[in-house]
């Protein structure tokens, strides 16, 4: 693969063609705020927080680093007044959309936003439409239980036809990646309730400790993916214990 | 019709069709465009057929249903060939008289001729009507003469001869050279050099490449591409086939919105006929070039006209744009090199090949060559489709061709480039209409929509209206456009309802500039245009709305008080009868009065007053 020269904040690097600018910058320890980027997912470019200033010969413009492939020599600056202004406005617009998303407050403050000058919405919870849940569920889990619906500011993440998400396997990846805690889940004994997607999943119990630990649907999807290799129905706690015990026996045997 | 197996067979077939045409044979052409159809144009056509048959003269006189003539407001249109007499607003009941007096005899039926608006003058000859006389019709020339459902009509007037020419041994690179030298730029709005785009797609190495025709035409009010697809579908197919040959592609798509059923129907018919004639399919005319076209139907989202969203839509995904650092000419449809052009762009190709790039480069302005079709609507006397050379002034289009502003009102502004274009004021009437001049003035060419406004249009409301459209059409993917355009609308709403403060102007400008620079796709990037351009040219109106809570045009209801002038009111009672809330009182010979407690500022009284006695305070 051909190497391409690029300068980020004055540091000259050689990168593989079509590396993503954000990965290159982070590798160099440069901090770029993001809300919709995840290294496991393809480029997306929705939140607009990761903007950087790009210069190519005599042209200079703002571009989001998360979906900027480096395919020719570029000079990238991550900290110019234009970049700071743009990120601040993006954050201000996001905060006007989800004014109660407390997990965003530190980032907002860092970018200089305290109270948005715009009319704030209060009708959509904390969803900022970063799309991480949708893309994780589709690209990584391969289930696609949820998706976007509607256009423009009416866009929401929802289940097919806004009904119970019958494809949802209850893996909770959406809950894990949601930057604002908008996606909610609740385990109560034998059921996992994916509250935001209106899905109730029956849990399987650990064969050792009998605690409910994984939705039956998720267990099945993983088992199917393993194609023949047996997946033991043991919860993570017991599995860890079992592994430790096995190791201990092995050591004891070797010593004696 | 047997398949044409060689280039020579096509040549012979074209000559045969041409020989069959007798230009002196009387023919009644009835416009079959969507506008005329909506006014019962097809019934007029079938009435002609029926009566000519009854009279036993259907062999001597032809009837032809053609594509759109662009003079839609006057439809249904009937043109008598070869006399060139145009009849407007023809009803089925007029047909008998037209046949006896005007086709079989030589009389002109006065009442069916076109009347020059604002005068008593009537004009019978189509070519003498200013609306037509001041245009330069190249792309549109064919539509009005041919039956779009007959490939024979197209071939008889020289159709597919350009395709034949390139297949007879012109090198693909040479075709691209011609297109590049012609100076043709994309008619879809961006104005990208067509030749350059083709070249970069040709250079991309891949086993499969695609050419696509963008027939999405999402600008409300624009119907240029629709009229071409309906009225001259073969010109689009021929352009695409030439492009595919030059680029090295064997697969074409035409993306048309479902709201264009007639375009889809006529394109489908044209594709089938071209296949039957061996002009599409495998080993076209015995050469080793194979090419076929499929129609892909869009659900009518504005954003699906954007190239990457359009391709996602053809692939069966939601029409959502992506960043274009990797061009679609390298990775487009299904990840393959793809060349996308607009309908009008494709329709220009056969002309350039036939008449030569030098001819094309001789038309238009310095950096914008050829003609452009505009759909001119709003406050002009003649609305319709207008094809003019690039570089003509706004004034020539609005006044010379479209007859100026009716009802003695004053011109105020013209929105060019559709909902995300800009609004230009009177000072800009002498601006040359081409890609660069429009952009420089803060507007754009867009796909050729033009909305003319008079002094009863409020520029703040106009900006608010287009912005509202764009909030609905934004796909909602990126923060800048989804949230930014919505906040623009929020502020504009405050302005038109008297709730804005002075600081709102700065905030509005700040968001506009942010959205323009930070959106993913052209929709967001151009969404601030209506607001920014009106802030530039009509700033005092914004200030008036905020500072004095006044809308001088009398459109923003919360900021409007109508008053009936003592001097002008003739106490005719018209306003009293029209007021929907019965807020006006008055008797004979006494100036009428508005009761402001009841008045809702709807402005109906001002509309109906024959003496211009109602005005804003
Ligand atoms: C929001 C949006 C809507 C668009 N709609 C259309 C359209 O309806 N028709 C069209 O030809 N181009 C449209 N375009 C432009 C296309 O993206 C593309 O540039 C064009 O089809 C390329 O063809 P051309 O080079 O022949 O102009 C649109 C662009 C944007 C950003
Ligand atoms: S600019 Fe608007 S339409 Fe384009 S991707 Fe962003 S949200 Fe979607
Ligand atoms: S991280 Fe790049 S746009 Fe969100």
Strand count of chain A: 13
At CATH level 2, the architecture of the largest domain in chain B is 3-Layer(aba) Sandwich
What strand line-up does the widest sheet of chain B have? 12-11-15-13-14
Rounded mean pLDDT score of chain B: 94
Low-confidence spans of chain B: none
Question: What is the helix content of chain B?
Answer: 25-40%
Shape category of chain B: globular
Total number of strands of chain B: 19
Plain-language structure description:
The complex is a heterodimer of chains A (256) and B (617). Chain A is an alpha+beta fold and 256 residues long. Chain A has two domains: 108 residues, Ubiquitin-like (UB roll); 112 residues, no CATH class. Chain A has a five-stranded mixed beta sheet with strand order 2-1-7-4-5, covered by helices on one side. The mean pLDDT of chain A is 94. By secondary structure, chain B is an alpha/beta fold. Chain B folds into five domains: 104 residues, Glutaredoxin, CATH 3.40.30.10; 218 residues, NADH-ubiquinone oxidoreductase 51kDa subunit (Rossmann fold, 3-Layer(aba) Sandwich), CATH 3.40.50; 87 residues, Roll (Ubiquitin-like (UB roll)), CATH 3.10.20; 88 residues, Up-down Bundle (de novo design (two linked rop proteins)), CATH 1.20.1440.230; 56 residues, Alpha-Beta Plaits (2-Layer Sandwich). In chain B, strand 5 and strand 6 form a beta hairpin. The chains are: A alpha+beta (256), B alpha/beta (617). Chains A and B meet through strand 5 and helix 2 of A and helix 18, helix 19 and helix 20 of B. Bound molecules: flavin mononucleotide, iron/sulfur cluster (SF4) and FE2/S2 (inorganic) cluster (FES). The site of FE2/S2 (inorganic) cluster has 12 residues of chain A, from loops.
Q: What characteristics describe this protein?
A:
heterodimer; A: 256 residues; alpha+beta; Ubiquitin-like (UB roll); 5-stranded mixed beta sheet; 4-stranded antiparallel beta sheet; 7 helices; 13 strands; 29% helix; B: 617 residues; alpha/beta; Glutaredoxin; Rossmann fold; 5 domains; 4-stranded mixed beta sheet; 25 helices; 19 strands; 14% strand; globular; binds flavin mononucleotide; binds iron/sulfur cluster; binds FE2/S2 (inorganic) cluster
């Amino acid at each position: 693969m051909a190497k391409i020269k690029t300068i980020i904040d004055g540091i000259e690097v050689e990168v593989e063609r079509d590396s993503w600018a954000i990965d290159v910058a982070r590798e160099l320890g440069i901090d770029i705020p993001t809300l919709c980027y995840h290294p496991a997912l393809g480029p997306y470019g929705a939140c607009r927080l990761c903007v950087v200033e790009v210069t190519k010969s005599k042209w200079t413009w703002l571009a989001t680093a998360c979906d900027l492939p480096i395919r020719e020599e570029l000079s990238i600056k991550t900290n110019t007044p234009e970049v700071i202004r743009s990120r601040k406005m993006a954050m201000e617009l996001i905060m006007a959309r989800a004014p109660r998303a407390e997990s965003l407050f530190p980032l907002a403050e860092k970018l200089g936003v305290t109270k948005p000058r715009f009319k704030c919405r209060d009708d959509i919870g904390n969803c900022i439409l970063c799309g991480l849940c949708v893309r994780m569920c589709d690209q990584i889990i391969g289930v696609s239980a949820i998706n976007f619906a509607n256009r423009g500011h009416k866009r929401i993440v929802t289940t097919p036809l806004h009904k119970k998400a019958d494809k949802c396997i209850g893996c909770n990846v959406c809950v894990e990646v949601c930057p604002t805690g908008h996606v909610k889940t609740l385990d109560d004994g034998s059921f996992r309730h994916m509250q935001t997607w209106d899905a109730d999943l029956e849990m399987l119990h650990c064969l050792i400790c009998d605690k409910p630990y994984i939705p039956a649907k998720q267990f099945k999807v993983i088992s199917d993916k393993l194609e023949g290799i047996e997946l033991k129905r043991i919860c993570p706690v017991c599995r860890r214990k079992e592994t430790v015990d096995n190791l201990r026996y092995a050591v004891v045997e070797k010593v004696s | 019709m047997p398949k044409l197996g060689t280039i020579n067979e096509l040549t012979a077939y074209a000559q045969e069709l041409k020989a069959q045409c007798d230009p002196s044979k009387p023919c009644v052409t009835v416009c079959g465009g969507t506008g005329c159809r909506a006014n019962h144009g097809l019934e007029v056509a079938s009435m002609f057929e029926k009566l000519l048959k009854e009279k036993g003269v259907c062999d001597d006189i032809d009837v032809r249903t053609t594509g759109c003539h662009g003079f839609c407001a006057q439809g249904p249109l009937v043109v008598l060939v070869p006399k060139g007499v145009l009849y407007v607003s023809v009803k089925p009941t007029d047909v008998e008289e037209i046949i006896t007096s005007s086709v079989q005899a030589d009389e002109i039926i006065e009442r069916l001729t076109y009347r020059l608006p604002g005068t008593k003058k009537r004009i019978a000859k189509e070519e003498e009507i200013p609306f037509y006389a001041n245009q330069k019709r190249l792309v549109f020339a064919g539509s009005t003469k041919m039956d779009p459902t007959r490939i024979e009509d197209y071939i008889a007037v020289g159709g597919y001869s350009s395709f034949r020419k390139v297949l007879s041994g012109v090198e693909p690179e040479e075709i691209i050279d011609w297109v590049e030298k012609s100076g043709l730029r994309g008619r879809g709005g961006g104005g990208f050099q067509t030749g350059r785009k083709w070249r970069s797609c040709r250079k991309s190495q891949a086993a499969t490449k695609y050419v696509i025709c963008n027939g999405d035409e999402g600008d409300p009010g624009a119907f240029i591409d629709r009229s071409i697809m309906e009225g001259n579908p073969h010109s689009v197919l021929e352009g695409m086939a030439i492009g595919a040959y030059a680029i090295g592609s064997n697969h074409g798509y035409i993306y048309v919105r479902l709201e264009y059923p007639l375009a889809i129907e006529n394109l489908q018919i044209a594709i089938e006929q071209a296949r039957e004639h061996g002009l599409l399919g495998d080993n076209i005319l015995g050469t080793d070039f194979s090419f076929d076209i499929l129609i892909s139907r869009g659900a009518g989202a504005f954003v699906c006209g954007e190239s990457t969203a359009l391709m996602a839509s053809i692939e069966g995904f939601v029409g959502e744009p992506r960043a274009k650092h990797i061009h679609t000419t390298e990775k487009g449809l299904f990840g393959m090199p793809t060349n996308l052009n607009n309908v009008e762009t494709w329709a220009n190709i056969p002309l350039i090949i036939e008449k030569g790039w030098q001819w094309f480069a001789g038309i238009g302005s310095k950096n914008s060559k050829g003609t452009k079709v505009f759909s001119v609507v709003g406050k002009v006397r003649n609305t319709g489709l207008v094809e003019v050379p690039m570089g003509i002034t706004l004034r020539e289009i609005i006044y010379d061709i479209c007859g100026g502003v009716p009802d003695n009102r004053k011109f105020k502004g013209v929105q060019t480039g559709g909902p995300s274009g800009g609004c230009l004021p009177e000072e800009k009437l002498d601006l040359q209409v081409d890609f660069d001049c429009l952009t420089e003035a803060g507007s754009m060419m867009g796909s050729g929509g033009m909305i003319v406004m008079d002094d009863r249009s409020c520029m703040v409301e106009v900006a608010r209206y287009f912005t509202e459209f764009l909030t609905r059409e934004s796909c909602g993917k990126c923060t800048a456009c989804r949230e930014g355009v919505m906040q623009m609308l929020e502020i504009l709403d405050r302005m038109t309802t008297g709730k804005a403060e002075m600081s709102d102007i700065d905030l509005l400008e700040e968001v506009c500039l942010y959205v323009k620079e930070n959106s993913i796709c052209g929709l967001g990037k151009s969404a601030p245009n209506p607001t920014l351009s009106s802030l530039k040219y009509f700033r005092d109106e914004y200030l008036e709305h905020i500072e004095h809570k006044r809308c001088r045009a009398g459109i923003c209801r919360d900021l409007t008080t109508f008053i009936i002038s003592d001097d002008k009111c003739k106490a005719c009672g018209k306003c009293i009868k029209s007021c929907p809330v019965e807020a006006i009182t008055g008797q004979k010979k006494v100036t009428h009065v508005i009761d402001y407690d009841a008045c809702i500022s709807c402005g109906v009284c001002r509309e109906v007053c024959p003496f211009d006695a109602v005005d804003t305070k």
